[in-house]
């Protein structure tokens, strides 16, 4: 629908880098290979339309079988300081790499693609202060489950959740991505972590060392201001957190 709307605008090419992902059309039934083959057959026309429309209007196309969008974003598109708009609620995964990655409706995405200002109500900012460090069987998932326990499924509505504090460094980059990804379950607009060494290592591991070097030079812009005021603060001691 977003591509049909964009085509009807009469604009020859998208105004910002844009990509199409279609793995949500693959239904899990038998196993990976057979399910993929079945999806390609059933959705043949849809895939053909998306790939050719993408080619015509300058939109990248990730063909079926490329992988879930959460990982594609983290491994290819998210980086510290980026503002990324996506039509998947779990676009927010990119907050694990210090980006402000927000899931929106298709019409909002079309606005961005057509160079129309994207607007949202100014969000509150909930600060989650992490101390201690993860240990034993405790994982990043337990951090967001603790936040969800405190805020409930609606407690993050209309807010951006910003994690900070010395405990952040004990969480891997993909772990931070998991926490941001599940922020959708508390209704948060998005979640974000400050740039740190774990992100630097991940960027290097995914062939983006140049971005890591640029982030190092601008670290003060990619971490919270000292004494920043939050609308609400949650304290979590990771050393005391249990699975």
Automatic annotation (TrEMBL):
Give coiled-coil spans as residue ranges. none
**Cellular component terms per the entry's GO annotation:** cytosol; mitochondrion
Cytoplasm as UniProt keyword:
no
User: Record's superkingdom?
Assistant: Eukaryota
Q: Where is the Aconitase/3-isopropylmalate dehydratase large subunit alpha/beta/alpha domain?
A: 14-243
- This protein's record includes keyword Iron: yes
Pfam families per UniProt: Aconitase
One GO BP annotation here? tricarboxylic acid cycle
Question: What does the record give as cofactor?
Answer: [4Fe-4S] cluster
The GO molecular function terms of this record are: 4 iron, 4 sulfur cluster binding; aconitate hydratase activity; metal ion binding
Q: Which UniProt keywords apply?
A: Iron, Iron-sulfur, Metal-binding
Give the family this protein belongs to, as stated in its UniProt record: Belongs to the aconitase/IPM isomerase family.
> Protein name, please?
Aconitase/3-isopropylmalate dehydratase large subunit alpha/beta/alpha domain-containing protein
Biological source species: Oppiella nova
Taxonomy of the source species: Eukaryota, Metazoa, Ecdysozoa, Arthropoda, Chelicerata
């Amino acid at each position: 629908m977003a591509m049909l709307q964009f085509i009807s605008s009469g604009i020859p090419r998208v105004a910002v880098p844009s990509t199409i992902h279609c793995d949500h059309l693959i239904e899990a039934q038998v196993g990976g290979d057979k399910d993929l083959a079945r999806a390609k057959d059933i959705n043949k026309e849809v895939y053909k339309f998306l790939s050719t429309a993408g080619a015509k209007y300058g939109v990248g196309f990730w063909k079926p079988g490329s992988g879930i969008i959460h990982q594609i974003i983290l491994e290819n598109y998210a980086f510290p300081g980026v503002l990324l708009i996506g039509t998947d609620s779990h676009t927010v995964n990119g907050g694990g790499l210090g980006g402000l990655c927000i899931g929106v409706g298709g019409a909002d995405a079309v606005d961005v693609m057509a160079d129309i200002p994207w607007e949202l109500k100014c969000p509150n900012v909930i600060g989650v202060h992490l101390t201690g460090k993860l240990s034993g069987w405790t994982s990043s998932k337990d951090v967001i489950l603790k936040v969800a326990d405190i805020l409930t499924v609606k407690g993050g509505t209309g807010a951006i959740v910003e994690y900070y504090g010395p405990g952040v460094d004990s969480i891997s980059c993909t772990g931070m991505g998991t926490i941001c990804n599940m922020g959708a379950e508390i209704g948060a607009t998005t979640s974000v972590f400050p740039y740190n060494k774990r992100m630097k290592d991940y960027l290097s591991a995914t062939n983006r060392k140049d971005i890591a070097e640029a982030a190092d030079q601008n670290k003060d812009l990619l971490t919270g201001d000292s004494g920043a005021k939050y609308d609400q603060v949650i304290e979590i001691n990771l050393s005391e957190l249990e699975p």
